[in-house]
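I hope you will forgive my troubling you with a question about protein structure. The full record is reproduced below for your convenience:

——
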Amino acid sequence: MIIGTAKVYLYADWVHSLKEKRMIVQSIIDKVRQRYNASIAEVEDLDLHQSIVLGIACVSNSTKHSNSCIQKVVEYIEENTEAVVQNIEIEIL
């Protein structure tokens, strides 16, 4: 069993409330869940309204597939949000 994980750090400087942040995060999560077979959730900075940290996980039987799945999800997030991607941490276990 191979597990691919990623942490995506985003910064949304135009967000001024937790309600706005939740709408952005929920939109990203819903789109990723519909499009890819991966788990995704907000994992850090839950009370900071301009910082978004998303955790992504994909379970597979091959390293190549797991890495590909994580890369596709990260690329999709980068292309479909106005938030600035600050950092991405990817780990294949």
The mean pLDDT is 91.
